[in-house]
Specification:
Elements: H1 2-30, E1 34-36, H2 38-51, H3 56-68, H4 79-82, H5 84-99, H6 102-108, H7 116-122, H8 125-140, H9 142-164, E2 171-175, H10 183-188, H11 195-200, H12 217-226, E3 230-232, E4 246-253, H13 261-266
Antiparallel strand pairs: 1-3, 2-4
Helix pairs in contact: 1-2, 1-3, 1-9, 2-8, 3-6, 5-9, 8-9
Bound molecules: zinc ion (ZN) (2 copies).
Length: 269
């Protein structure tokens, strides 16, 4: 029972980490579709540091490069270039490989210089994540704390790998691009599973576009807006139906369907 509770705590924390990732790293920093109140920004920065050990600057640069080279040579983590299972099982390796590339950092994250807090503390991501491990061990006991900590890491990494791997391999497409929508994945990734929609309109602050699609981060963002903690900068509702790459109907892509390279090359975004 103790360990079951620990697994629950770890998964719950991975959900908080995933929410911070989609709202702050993705929609606020990478695509600038939302602005946050300084207090909310501080919460998200500390959350990123303690729950993911990610450097926002690196995440943003790798992600922007992914949009620039989706599923062609140069994409940091493409299942079509590297292979599906390599991304599903070793996504973090491909992420680190690109994050260590100084040219990528300079080109894609020039607008995000380190500030004093980054230089003094938040740059050391491993320290933040280790601190979470110590706190969990202190609250839950050493072994249960370790179980919770491991569950957090494994769940978070698996969900991210699924977005980059499965989300470019099978699922549904509303738009002509190389990514896919996975509605169930969207429910446990705060909307990120609606990846085909996202590649169609990267600057949309909401990832759901049509009936039956749920972006669980969207009500959170609207709630934050009501509290004065966030401001949506781009238009969530316009541009889906009239999108130039809107398919006449939703298409299902099964694993192994492959991808038409000519289509990919013409739909880079
Ligand atoms: Zn993608
Ligand atoms: Zn994006």
């Amino acid at each position: 029972m103790k360990y079951l509770k620990a697994i629950g705590v770890g998964f719950g924390l991975s959900q908080v980490a995933t929410l911070i990732t989609t709202v702050y790293l993705h929609r606020v920093l990478s695509h600038k579709s939302i602005q946050l109140h300084p207090a909310a920004t501080m919460f998200m920065r500390l959350g990123t540091w303690m729950l993911t050990s990610i450097s926002p600057r690196e995440w943003v640069a790798v992600h922007r490069k992914h949009h620039n080279f989706s599923d062609v040579e140069g994409d940091p983590h493409s299942p079509h270039v590297e292979g599906y299972w390599k991304i599903m099982l070793a996504n973090v390796y491909y992420y680190r490989r690109e994050a260590n590339n100084d040219n990528t950092m300079e080109k894609y994250a020039a607008d995000l210089p380190f500030d004093k807090l980054d230089l003094a503390l938040l740059r050391r991501g491993t320290l933040g994540f280790s601190l979470t491990g110590v706190i969990l061990a202190w609250i839950l006991g050493t072994k249960a704390g370790l179980v919770a900590w491991t569950t957090l890491a494994v769940s978070y990494l698996t969900l991210n790998a699924a977005i980059n791997g499965a989300g470019h391999t099978f699922g549904e497409k509303n738009f002509e691009n190389d990514a896919t929508n996975l509605k169930l994945l969207a429910l446990i990734t705060f909307g990120e599973g609606l990846h085909n929609n996202h590649h169609a309109r990267p600057a949309s602050p909401r990832l759901s576009a049509f009936d039956g699609e749920i972006d669980p981060a969207w009500p959170v963002i609207r709630g934050m807006e009501k509290l004065g903690l966030a401001k949506v900068l781009t238009k969530p509702d316009v541009g889906w139906d009239t999108h130039r790459r809107r398919l006449p109907e939703t298409v299902k892509i099964r694993p192994g369907d492959g991808i038409d390279i000519a289509t990919v090359n013409s739909s880079k975004n």
